[in-house]
Amino acid sequence: MCNGQIERFNSTMGAKIVALSNDRKTDWDDQLPFVTFNYNTTVHSTTKTIPFALMYGRAPVLPFDHQDPSVSLSQEPEHLIKLKTYLSSLTGQATNNIIKNQSKYKQRYDLNRSNPSYKIDDLVLVKTLNTRHKFDIRHEGPFRIIQQLASKTFIVEHTKKTTLRRQVTVDVIIRLFERTL
Q1: DSSP sequence for 67-101
Q2: GO terms for molecular function, please (predicted)?
Q3: Domain covering 123-176 in this structure, CATH number
Q4: What's the gap between Cα 29 and its chain centre?
């Protein structure tokens, strides 16, 4: 849950690799340089900048760009100073865009986030780790909280199988209420 950005990146890269690979997907490693170059030369939605430009301080030269037959590199003494200034301004803009997007993501996350509190002796169900089919059970238990390790980390013990203990966090447990008659 905390690696959403990485999962999003992997999803993007996976889709691009699948699109370029052969039918049996045996040459995906041959396509990887092309996919990474494509990713690094595309405007990133968070930074609003091309990652290549953040790294090298210039726009990438693509195969279809017009190129002069002779290339000359200027040896201005101020070139290094200009490049450092340009890179720091690009980095500053990207940082500002990241901070804006992080606050937007946090607002969206907090909008639907509950903040449950648990105490010792509460009954809970624990999320099943390896669901294989949509009809598999999603939670198992009941478990009783026997120890609190941190604000959101607990040790739980199965109510019937007391040798079954687990360390869990609040994101994998659901409160279970006892019915009083």
Answers
A1: --SS------TTHHHHHHHHHHHHHHHHHHHHHHH
A2: nucleic acid binding
A3: 2.30.30
A4: 23
CA–CA distances in Å: residue 41 to residues 19, 29, 53, 137:
18, 19, 8, 44
Quickly count: other Cβ atoms within 10 Å of residue 148's Cβ. 13
Tokens of 21: 């690979």
132: phi > 0 → left, psi -120 to 50 → alpha, else beta; which? alpha
Largest Cα span, the chain? 89
Domain ranges of the chain: 4-63+78-111, 123-176
Q: Which residues pair with 139 in a beta bridge?
A: 127
Closest CA to 176 of 127, 135, 129: 127
pLDDT tens digits for range 143-158 = 999 999 988 899 999 9
pLDDT computed for residue 71 by the predictor: 62
Omega before 142 cis (within 30°)? yes
Look up residue 20 and give its amino acid: L
Lookup result for tokens 């301080």: 57
